[in-house]
Write a sequence for this structure.
C-alpha cells in the first residue's frame, strides 16, 4: 500500500500520469476474449489497483526463428497495443539469444540449431514488423489526442553476450526448483516423446525467467504477456522475481488462435500468414481475413481490431440483415491490413481484389507488372516490342500462350482467349495498342480459366 502511494505521488509529477486514459484497467480486455489466463490467478484486485494507479511497463517476447512474424504473433502485438492505448508502456523483446536455445513450448520436436548469421538477419525482419505495426497503429488507428507512450524494443542478446554462464546458472538458476521446472507442460510433453528433450531446450525457462528479472530491475516491468503456450515460462519468471526481489508481478496470456482445422497458426505449421509483405502480400492477407467463416468473424473482430464491442455488435446485426455483403469480413480485413501494411498496402490489396474478382480494368491499370504477376499466381511475364499491324494471333504466339499455331487458332476461335479480361475470338483482329495496352504499359492475356500472361510493352 505504501509502495502504491509512493508510486501515485511519484507519478502525479510526470506528464504521462496526468493524462486520462479510461482503458488503463487492461483486464477489461477479457470481455473481448483477449486474455485467457492470469497468473497468479487470485490477484485480480491488486492487479486492478496497480493498473489504475500508474502507467505500467509490460513486455512480450518474440524469438527470431524466422525473418518475419505471423498473425499468431500479431495477436500478442495487438495486446501490447491495447496496453499502450491504456496509457501503459510496452516493451517488445526480441530473443536474439533465446532463438539460439529454442523454446520447446507448444512444439512437438526440437528445432534445428540456428546459425548466428540467420538469427541476426531475422532480428532485422522482426524489428521491422514490430516498428511498422506500432507506427501504423498510431498513424491510422489511434484516433485520440493523447500521445501514446513510446515503444521500447530490446534484444536479450545485449545482456546475455555480456553475462557469464556461471552468473546465470550459479545465480538465477539456484532459485528455480527442479520439481517445478519438470512439471511444466512444455517439458512433460517432450519427455514423453520418443526423441526426449535436450538440456539446451530444458534450460529455456531459465533464460525467459531471467529476462523478466532483468526488465523488472531496469524498467520496473511488472507484467509479461504471451500466447497461452508461454504460461510455464512466465510462471518461472514469476517465481524468480518473487524469490529474488520479493515483489509481486503478473503474467497474462492471450488465447492461441488456430485454423478452422484446429492447427495452431505458426511458422512451422505450413499455414502461416506472414506480416512481411515480401512473404505474404497485403492482398493475400486481406483475402485471408475476408474469407473467415461467419461463425468466426465476430470473435476475429474482437481480437484483431480495436473497434468497441458495441460497434462490432452493430456490424453483426447489419450482417444478419444482408449477409451477402460480407460487411464484417471486409471491415476485419481492412483493419488488419491497415495495421500491418498501412494505407498504401490496404489500397494495393483492395485494387488487387477488384482486378481479380471484379475483373476491373481500372484497377488492373493501376498495378505494376510484379503486382499483377503475384496476383495472377504463376503468370508468365513477357517483355516485347510493339509491331505495327500485329494481330491477336501474332501476339498470342509471340508471348508463348500456345504450343502450335493450330492450337492457337482453334482455342481463340472457340472463345478461350482473353485480353484484359475481354473475350477475343477473332485471331486475325489487328491489335489496337491504344485500347489493348493499359495505361501502366501492360496487357493481361488469359488462356482458359487461369493461365495468365503479363505483356510488358517495351516502348
Ligand atoms: C518471450 C520472452 C522472453 O523473455 C524471451 C523470449 C520470448 C519468446 C517466446 N519464448 C517464444 O518463443 N515466442 S514465439 O516467438 O514463438 O512467439 C511469440 C509470441 O507469439 C508468443 O507469446 C507466442 O505464444 C505467440 N503466438 C505464437 N503463435 C500464436 C501465438 N499467440 C496466439 N496464437 C498463435 N497461433
Amino acid at each position: 500500500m505504501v509502495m502504491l502511494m509512493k508510486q501515485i505521488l511519484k507519478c502525479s509529477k510526470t506528464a504521462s500520469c496526468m493524462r486520462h486514459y479510461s482503458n488503463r484497467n487492461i483486464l477489461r480486455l477479457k470481455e473481448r476474449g483477449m486474455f485467457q489466463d492470469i497468473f497468479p490467478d487470485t490477484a485480480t484486485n491488486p492487479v486492478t489497483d496497480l493498473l489504475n494507479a500508474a502507467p505500467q511497463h509490460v513486455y512480450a517476447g518474440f524469438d527470431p526463428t524466422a525473418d518475419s512474424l505471423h498473425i499468431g504473433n500479431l495477436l500478442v502485438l495487438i495486446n501490447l497495443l491495447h496496453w499502450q492505448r491504456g496509457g501503459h508502456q510496452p516493451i517488445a523483446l526480441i530473443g536474439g539469444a533465446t532463438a539460439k536455445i529454442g523454446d520447446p513450448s507448444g512444439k512437438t520436436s526440437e528445432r534445428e540449431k540456428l546459425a548466428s548469421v540467420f538469427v541476426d538477419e531475422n532480428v532485422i525482419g522482426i524489428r521491422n514488423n514490430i516498428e511498422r505495426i506500432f507506427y501504423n497503429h498510431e498513424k491510422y488507428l489511434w484516433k485520440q489526442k493523447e500521445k501514446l507512450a513510446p515503444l521500447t524494443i530490446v534484444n536479450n542478446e545485449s545482456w546475455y553476450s555480456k553475462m557469464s554462464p556461471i552468473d546465470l546458472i550459479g545465480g538465477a538458476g539456484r532459485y528455480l526448483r527442479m520439481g517445478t521446472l519438470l512439471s511444466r507442460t512444455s517439458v512433460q510433453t517432450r519427455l514423453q516423446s520418443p526423441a526426449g528433450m535436450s538440456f539446451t531446450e530444458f534450460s529455456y525457462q531459465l533464460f525467459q525467467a531471467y529476462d523478466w528479472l532483468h526488465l523488472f530491475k531496469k524498467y520496473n516491468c511488472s507484467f509479461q504477456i504471451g500466447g497461452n503456450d508461454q504460461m510455464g515460462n512466465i510462471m518461472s519468471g514469476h517465481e524468480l522475481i518473487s524469490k529474488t526481489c520479493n515483489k509481486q508481478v503478473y503474467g497474462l496470456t492471450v488465447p492461441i488462435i488456430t485454423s478452422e482445422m484446429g492447427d495452431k497458426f505458426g511458422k512451422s505449421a505450413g499455414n502461416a500468414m506472414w506480416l512481411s509483405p515480401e512473404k505474404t502480400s497485403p492482398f493475400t492477407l486481406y483475402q485471408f481475413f475476408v474469407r473467415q467463416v461467419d461463425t468466426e468473424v465476430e470473435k476475429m473482430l474482437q481480437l484483431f481490431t480495436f473497434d468497441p464491442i458495441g460497434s462490432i455488435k452493430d456490424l453483426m446485426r447489419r450482417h444478419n440483415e444482408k449477409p451477402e455483403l460480407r460487411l464484417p469480413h471486409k471491415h476485419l480485413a481492412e483493419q488488419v491490413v491497415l495495421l500491418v501494411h498501412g494505407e498504401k498496402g490496404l489500397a494495393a490489396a483492395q485494387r488487387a481484389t477488384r482486378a481479380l474478382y471484379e475483373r476491373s480494368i481500372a484497377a488492373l491499370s493501376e498495378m505494376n507488372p510484379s503486382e499483377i504477376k503475384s496476383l495472377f499466381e504463376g503468370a508468365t511475364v513477357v517483355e516485347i516490342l510493339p509491331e505495327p499491324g500485329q494481330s491477336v494471333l501474332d501476339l498470342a504466339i509471340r508471348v508463348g500462350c500456345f504450343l502450335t499455331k493450330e492450337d492457337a487458332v482453334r482455342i481463340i476461335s472457340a472463345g478461350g482467349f482473353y485480353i484484359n479480361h475481354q473475350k477475343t475470338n477473332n485471331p486475325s483482329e489487328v491489335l489496337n495498342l491504344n485500347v489493348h495496352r493499359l495505361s501502366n504499359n501492360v496487357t493481361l492475356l488469359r488462356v482458359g480459366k487461369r493461365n495468365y500472361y503479363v505483356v510488358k510493352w517495351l516502348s
The pocket of 5'-O-[N-(L-tyrosyl)sulfamoyl]adenosine is lined by residues 60-63, 72-73, 75-76, 93, 95, 98, 103, 156, 208, 211, 226-227, 229-230, 233, 254, 256-257, 264-266 (CB under 6 Å). The first strand starts at residue 37 and ends at 39. Residues 327-357 form the longest helix (31 residues).
